[in-house]
Fold:
Amino acid sequence: MQKEIIVLLGGPGTGKSTLINELVARGYCCYPEISREVTLEAQKRGIEQLFLEQPLLFSEMLLEGRIQQFKSALEEPDNVVFIDRGIPDVVAYMDYIGDEYPEDFTKACEDYKYSKTFILPPWEEIYQSDTERYENFEQALEIQKHLIETYKKYGYDLIEVPKDTVENRILYILDKI
Structure:
């Protein structure tokens, strides 16, 4: 069986991390979202919202981390690896805020390709803001648009995961792989 590196994507608060946690509980190899880790590390250094204060630095750190996740996924003994957010997310967020970024961001999107991409739609009923998720629901909808545009720009066919129970969402994803 060929290595499947599968990304779960979607705007903030769509349930990606919940699905990743459930996949882990079922024994699947999964890589978590790293932006919270980057944000928390910056907060320890006194920068409350690194993405808002230094978006390019934040995005460079995310890009580096997501490339490393992809490379590590290739080395996993498991044939299927799930990743919470992918490399094109970095470009989508930079486009969302209207900032420029270096050519290596685009090159990374072209060089590292995921096997499948599952997109989770915005879901107001489950949406929650917290200390690392500062966007409101309307901003989350706008981010979703940028994610869709960016992934399509890099040739991905997005498989939309229906709004449903965690169990049914997992079964849907597993059925598609």
